[in-house]
Write a structure and sequence with these properties.
Layout: H1 3-17, H2 29-35, E1 47-53, H3 58-67, E2 72-76, E3 90-95, H4 97-106, E4 121-122, H5 127-136, E5 141-145, E6 152-157, H6 158-170, H7 172-175, H8 189-192, E7 203-204, H9 209-219, E8 223-227, E9 233-238, H10 243-248, E10 270-273, H11 279-289, E11 293-297, E12 303-308, H12 309-327, E13 350-354, E14 359-364
Parallel strand pairs: 1-2, 4-5, 7-8, 10-11
Antiparallel strand pairs: 1-14, 2-3, 5-6, 8-9, 11-12, 13-14
C-alpha cells in the first residue's frame, strides 16, 4: 500500500469511527454506515478485467467467458482496443444474453431481444447508491468508473457489497462500543419473511434444457431447484450451467435433459437453509460459501422458498433507506460535506491485448497484496459471478 493510500485509509477510519450508531434506530445502522463510504472503498488493490471486442463471434465470446471462468465481460468497440491505456468506452455488458439468444433463436424470435443500455456508477458515489442500483435496477454487476468516466476500475457485485458489510460492520457488532447488533439479526427468516416462499419454479433431472431456458426467461429467475421423484431437492440448475453448451459447442442441442450437461467446471453457488435459521446465519452462509442464493427446504428436503443476495440486501439496505428518505428531508442520505474518500488508488492500467481473439486483459494495482474482499481466484479477480 502506498503512503497516500495509508493516509487515506487512516483518514477514512477516523471519519467513520466517531459515529455512535447506538443512538439511531437499528434499521438505520447499515444504511447510515454505507452512506459514509464510496464505491472506491470496496475496490480491490489488485486484479484484472477481461474485456471483449464487439466484433467477436458469439461462440468465441462465450468460449472466452468459459475459458476465463467468468460470467460477464465488458464489450469495447474494436477500434478502441489499441487505446485501452487511454480510454475505455463501454458499449455493453455480455451477461447471460447467451441464454436469451439460445431461447429466441430456437423459436425464431431473435428480433424481439432488447438491447438494454449498460448501467454504471462513479467510484466517488456512495455505497448506498450502488446498493439501490443493484437492487432496484435488477442488475447483477455494476461497472465502477473513475471520475473522468473514461475507465472502468472494477465491477461491483451484490456479494462483494455484502462481504464488505460482513467484514467491516457486522464483525464489530460484538466487539465495538459504538454499534450494537440489530435485533433482527437473531430473528429467523420465517419471522422476517426475507425471500420468496410462494410459487417456486422447479424442474426435475429429465427436464429439457429448452424448457429450463423457458422458465429462466418467463419467470425471470436465475436458478431452478432440481427435484427427485419424491419431491426432494437434489441439485440446483443455474443459468451458468448452460454455458456448458458454449464449452462443448452444442448450441442447437436444446432437447437434452439438464442432467446431461457438463457441470464439472461449474462452481457451487447455491446452498440450502431452513425456516428456523436466523438472518445472521444466512448471511454467514452467503459470505463464507460465496453462495448467490439459498434454497429454503422443509424437514423432507422439499423446496419451500428461495433467498437471494438481492433479498438480503433489499432487507438490510434498500427498504430502510427508502423509509428514511420518505420520512423527512432531513433524514435523507446525502454525501458527507467532505466528500467520499476512496480507500485505494489505481495506477495506470497495464493492458495486454490478444488481437487474434479480441480479448484484452487489464491489470489493476501492483498485484502484490491480496484483496480480502476478493470473490474469485486472483486470475479473475474482478469478474465475479452471481
Amino acid at each position: 500500500m502506498s503512503f497516500r493510500q495509508e493516509m487515506l485509509s487512516s483518514f477514512h477510519l477516523r471519519r467513520t469511527e466517531h459515529v455512535d450508531y447506538t443512538k439511531m434506530p437499528e434499521e438505520e445502522v447499515i444504511p447510515s454506515f454505507l452512506r459514509r463510504l464510496s464505491c472506491d472503498d470496496v475496490m480491490p488493490t489488485s486484479g484484472k478485467i477481461v474485456v471483449l471486442s464487439v466484433d467477436l463471434l458469439v461462440k468465441n465470446a462465450f468460449n472466452a467467458l468459459v475459458t476465463n471462468d467468468i460470467r460477464s465481460a465488458p464489450l469495447l468497440l474494436q477500434h478502441l482496443l489499441y487505446y485501452l491505456n487511454y480510454l475505455m468506452k463501454f458499449v455493453g455488458m455480455l451477461i447471460y444474453r447467451f441464454l436469451n439468444l439460445l431461447y429466441y433463436y430456437n423459436f425464431e424470435l431473435i428480433t424481439g431481444i432488447e438491447n438494454k443500455p449498460i448501467i454504471r456508477i462513479k467510484g466517488s458515489e456512495s455505497l448506498t447508491q450502488a446498493a439501490k442500483i443493484l437492487i432496484q435496477q435488477g442488475v447483477h454487476r455494476l461497472p465502477v468508473q473513475d471520475d473522468s468516466g473514461n475507465a472502468v476500475v472494477f465491477v461491483m457485485t451484490k456479494r462483494r457489497l455484502l462481504q464488505y458489510l460482513q467484514e467491516k460492520l457486522f464483525s464489530k457488532f460484538v466487539e465495538s462500543k459504538n454499534v450494537n447488533m440489530p435485533s433482527f439479526f437473531t430473528k429467523t427468516i420465517q419471522e422476517l419473511q426475507v425471500g420468496t416462499f410462494e410459487d417456486i419454479a422447479v424442474i426435475n433431472e429429465d427436464t429439457k434444457v429448452i424448457d429450463a431456458l423457458n422458465l429462466f426467461v418467463s419467470r425471470k429467475v436465475s436458478a431452478l431447484p432440481v427435484l427427485d421423484d419424491k419431491g426432494s431437492v437434489i441439485d440446483v440448475f443455474q443459468k451458468f450451467d448452460v454455458f456448458a453448451l458454449a464449452k462443448n459447442q452444442t448450441y442447437h442441442d436444446l432437447d437434452i435433459p439438464v442432467k446431461s450437461l457438463d457441470k464439472s467446471y461449474s462452481r457451487d453457488t447455491t446452498g440450502t437453509c431452513t425456516f428456523d435459521e436466523t438472518l445472521e446465519t444466512v448471511i454467514t452462509k452467503f459470505v463464507s460459501n460465496k453462495f448467490h442464493r439459498l434454497v429454503v427446504v422443509d424437514k423432507n428436503y422439499a423446496p419451500a422458498g428461495m433467498i437471494s443476495l438481492s433479498d438480503v440486501l433489499k432487507f438490510l439496505v434498500v427498504q430502510p433507506l427508502v423509509k428514511m428518505e420518505n420520512a423527512s428531508v432531513s433524514r435523507t442520505i446525502p454525501e458527507d460535506s467532505e466528500g467520499a474518500v476512496g480507500g485505494t488508488e489505481t495506477e495506470e492500467a497495464e493492458v495486454d491485448v490478444d488481437l487474434s481473439t479480441g480479448v484484452a486483459h487489464m491489470k489493476i494495482g501492483d498485484g502484490n497484496k491480496p484483496d480480502s474482499f476478493d470473490e474469485t481466484p486472483p486470475r479473475r479477480l474482478l469478474t465475479t459471478n452471481e
